[in-house]
Design a protein that fits this description.
Elements: H1 6-22, H2 31-38, H3 43-58, H4 65-75, H5 96-111, E1 116-117, H6 119-122, E2 124-131, H7 142-162, E3 170-174, E4 178-184, H8 194-199, E5 204-209, E6 226-234, E7 240-248, E8 253-254, E9 258-265, E10 271-277, H9 279-295, E11 302-308, E12 311-318, E13 326-329, H10 335-345, E14 353-361, H11 363-417, E15 420-421, H12 423-452, H13 457-489, H14 493-525, H15 549-570, H16 577-580, E16 582-588, H17 595-604, E17 611-617, E18 622-629, H18 634-644, E19 651-658, H19 660-688, H20 691-714, H21 721-751, H22 757-789, H23 793-823, H24 828-833
Parallel strand pairs: 1-15
Antiparallel strand pairs: 2-4, 2-14, 3-4, 5-8, 5-11, 6-7, 9-10, 10-13, 11-12, 14-19, 16-18, 16-19, 17-18
Length: 851
């Protein structure tokens, strides 16, 4: 027994140990404490530097200890790497400033908890920028040029953000011309210029270099009007070197005069930079090069520096005036340096970046979200655990243990890949709790059936697991497909939700199919577990489900039509801030004002239509006011409320701005995601089962999505990006329930070769009805805890789950199987005629059977 299960033991222990290690440290360590404890040389000297940095932060001279140490290292020319000789910094990295930046960023990242929290859980600032990429093609096709420009823009923005000391910022391209930025633990109160600093146009300058001596030759004397700048570049052997120059502070010319630049080759095949100027740029560059060429002498050629955002990018000699609309920058460039410089000259940030959306989450709002979210999750876990232990005793306890393993693996994987935990992600994990025990229930119910036939506990365990295996795999593969589509086509919270859910699906398969099965085998085969007690939620039933299929489906689709009618009637009113565009502001207060009073204030201030809601934070923090306003009008409303009702003491704790174009893009991507999901599910189910099953599954999912949307709107909820993710998740859950029914229908077709299709479907549904209710109950309980004890987006997502779980259970029985029945005209001969392979029956050994 032990030898047979040795690989399972090793795999389970390895995954659990790896996940725990990946989560360490679990909390942020103050930066000053972390660097003190990890310095391994000249500790007393280093501690004095840290003390200075702490004092700078305390005096307001720097926003953080990290930034203070960065500034001190520059001002005092300190090489911080000497205090950390054990860290693997590149020996060839000669530039001290660059080495310090790399070291401090590494130490900052290392001091943070491995599992990073999103803005909604830790607070911070987020915004989406749109770049006008213009028509500077630099000799490339437009798509390649746009990618190059956007990539360079992200590189520049990243360099700017690193100066704020933000650990784990998120900076990524969205589409062809947008950049999404999220800065946790940053606020506009302490950093009011953070957005302007990030999006300001990059400054590209052509400056004169002092030709007669270098800084190392000047004995500390700097020529008037010049400053010292370092130029890092690669030699042909790949070694990185750093040189210092005296560079003029005031530029002779800016990048406005460049039309575009390309990488060329000289007569020896060495790379150089070709430039084409605008007419005005041509004239000015001729004047500049003439002046620079005349600044040197026979032994010292004049030199031109190219400076981007204050950093020296290139230094080139100028022998004579360049009077042409084209120019070449010669230098000892590697191919990579040449392309980098060409991109600098075609810099995408030389055109303004437009803010398409912006939001800020205050620390109090984030703390409240953490409290309520964690409480809801813990309660959900406790309720599901109690349910499982009540109905499955020892098996329920095993499922709870493996559920703990599952959660640790999920969090460990998220920490390891750098995924960020957000509120929608937390909801996804809670949903995973419910869906994880579903797989255990499928196995336990199969064991119940095997035990009822008189088989031993060991045989029932092995046979029940084997019979449930492919059902579990099929259901989880389809969920993974939907997660992949969310990640592929989704943006923001939709993509994050998909990542979290995909990790949960994979972790569930591992913990249930390997760890849980391992524990059950050890308990049973060792003789420790001699009896497996299971209670019934429902007794065996014998209902003609096919007979009730038509009225049930008709009533259900009538409700769907009513819901969709309300959706079309309300039009754009059903869309929240993510889709319609506008502002949403969250306020704390000391005195409660009626909604009518707030609306009157908005009318008097000419704010426009607003939506007002009060949210109770059951986890702590008290009630908060959330108001949606037209775009750019939120601050007007806040000022009006503070002025007309000072007794309420309103204070802003969170704000979000979203342009309508962002909303349209989210909606378009959501529609694409749903369409792609339907197509892939149809193909997969048709491949794994049969085409009629695929049609039934697709219609069932469309029914569940439409029903969920209709009920969601009927209850007054509004659509946001997390809601789209939740609805896509419902598609995954719906197919999970449907696959259970389909798998049993397929099995009944093999076991009952003479039964009619109607009898086969009724028999299959009656046999799985009890466990379908059991599996949906656990997921329902997990979602219910989120709805009752969560707030804000958790409540909205969990409401979607609750509706979707009910509709998915209903549709698996009354929609999917009925569509399959109607598709084949109620004739099992039609099913077998359209199957890829004729069914085989183990007792006959024949490839054909009588019908």
């Amino acid at each position: 027994m032990l030898k047979r299960n040795l690989w399972k033991i090793a795999a389970s222990l390895f995954m659990l140990g790896w996940a725990i290690f990946a989560l360490l440290p679990v909390k942020d360590i103050p930066f000053q404490d972390y660097v003190r404890s990890h310095a391994t040389a000249k500790n007393d000297e280093f501690n004095k530097i840290v003390d200075q940095a702490v004092a700078m932060k305390a005096n307001g001279a720097a926003p953080s200890t990290y930034v203070a140490m960065k500034r001190l290292s520059v001002q005092q020319k300190i090489d911080l790497s000497q205090y950390f000789p054990s860290l693997p910094l590149e020996e060839t990295l000669k530039n001290v400033s660059k080495r310090n930046d790399i070291l401090l960023k590494y130490l900052l990242d290392s001091s943070k908890a491995r599992l990073q929290l999103g803005l909604d859980l830790v607070g911070g600032v987020g915004f989406t920028l749109e770049a006008d990429l213009g028509d500077k093609t630099a000799g490339y096709d437009n798509e390649t040029a746009d990618k190059e420009k956007l990539s360079k823009a992200i590189e520049i923005i990243s360099a700017r953000i690193n100066s704020f000391g933000v650990s784990e910022p998120m900076i990524r391209a969205v589409g062809r011309n947008r950049i999404e930025v999220q800065l946790p633990n940053i606020n506009t109160k302490d950093n009011p210029e953070v957005l302007n600093e990030v999006k300001k146009p990059a400054r590209l300058d052509f400056r004169m270099v002092y030709p007669f001596e270098r800084p190392e030759q000047a004995s500390g004397q700097i020529p008037p009007g010049y400053e010292i700048k370092s130029y890092e570049h690669d030699l042909q052997d790949g070694t990185e070197v750093s040189e210092e120059y005296f560079v003029k502070r005031i530029p002779e010319m800016t990048g406005d005069g460049i039309a575009y630049s390309t990488v060329q080759q000289d007569s020896y095949g060495n790379p150089q930079i070709g430039i084409r100027f605008t007419p005005a740029g041509h004239k000015r560059f001729a004047e500049v090069t003439k002046e620079i060429a005349a600044s040197g002498d026979a032994n010292h050629l004049g030199m031109l520096a190219v400076v981007l955002d204050g950093s020296l990018c290139s230094v080139a000699s100028v022998k004579e005036e360049i009077d042409s609309d084209q120019a070449v920058i010669e230098g000892h460039f590697t191919q990579r340096e040449a392309f980098t410089l060409a991109n600098d000259l075609n810099n995408p940030l030389d055109l303004p970046l437009v803010v398409k959306s912006q939001f800020e989450v205050g620390p109090s709002l984030a703390a409240d979200a953490v409290t309520s979210g964690v409480r809801a999750s813990v309660i959900g876990l406790a309720v599901v655990s109690a349910f499982m232990i009540t109905f499955y005793t020892t098996g329920g306890l095993v499922s709870v243990i493996t559920l703990g393993v599952n959660l640790i693996i999920i969090l460990g994987v998220m920490a390891n890949i750098g995924a960020t935990m957000t509120l929608p992600g937390l909801a996804g994990i809670v949903l995973t709790i419910g869906m994880a025990v579903d797989a255990n229930i499928l196995i336990f119910e199969r064991m119940r059936e095997e035990l009822a036939t008189g088989k031993s506990l060991s045989t029932a365990n092995q046979t029940g697991f084997a019979k449930a295996l492919m059902t579990i795999i099929d259901a989880h593969i389809v969920q993974l497909i939907i997660c992949a589509i969310m990640i592929w086509l989704g943006t923001g919270p939709i993509r994050g939700f998909g990542v979290t859910l995909a990790i949960g699906v994979l972790s569930t398969m591992f913990s249930v199919l390997i760890t849980a099965h391992l524990i059950m085998e050890l308990l049973i085969d060792s003789g420790f577990l001699k009896k497996f007690s299971m209670r019934h939620l429902l007794k065996a039933i014998h209902i003609d489900f096919v007979r009730f299929g038509v009225p049930a489906a008709a009533g259900s689709f009538l409700l769907v039509l009513i819901g969709l009618g309300v959706v079309f009637y309300q039009g754009n009113k059903i869309f929240g801030i993510d889709f319609s565009g506008g502002d949403v502001v969250t306020l704390q207060y000391k005195q409660h004002l009626e909604v009518g009073v707030i609306r009157q204030v908005a009318d008097d201030a000419k704010v426009g239509d607003i939506n007002v809601s009060y949210e109770n934070a059951l986890g702590g923090g008290g009630e908060q006011l959330k108001v949606e306003t037209p775009e750019g009008r939120s601050q007007i409303l806040v000022d009006a409320l503070q002025k007309t009702h000072p007794e309420a003491a309103y204070s802003k704790v969170g704000e979000e701005h979203v342009g309508a174009s962002i909303g349209r893009e989210i909606l378009y991507n959501a529609a694409r995601a749903i369409g792609a999901s339907m197509l892939v599910i149809l193909l997969y189910i048709a491949f794994r089962f049969e085409f009629g099953f695929g049609v039934g599954a697709m219609v069932s999912i469309l029914h569940d999505i439409a029903m969920t949307i209709g009920i969601f709107v009927l209850f007054g909820h509004k659509f946001s990006a997390p809601m789209v993710a939740a609805i896509l998740c419902i598609a995954g859950y719906s197919i999970n329930e449907t696959v259970v029914v389909f798998d049993r229908i397929r099995e009944e077709l093999k076991l009952n070769p003479t039964g009619s299709l109607k009898d086969i479907i009724n028999s299959a549904i009656n046999k799985v009805f009890a466990r379908t209710i059991m599996t949906s109950s656990t997921t329902f309980l997990a979602a219910l805890s989120l709805y009752l004890f969560g707030n804000g987006v958790l409540s909205d997502i969990s409401f979607t789950f609750l509706v979707g779980i009910v509709t998915s259970t209903f549709s698996a029985i009354f929609i999917a199987s009925q569509i399959f029945y109607w598709w084949h005209k109620g004739d099992r001969k039609h099913v077998e005629a359209h199957s890829d392979v004729a069914p085989k029956y183990e007792w006959t050994g024949s490839s054909k059977a009588s019908r």
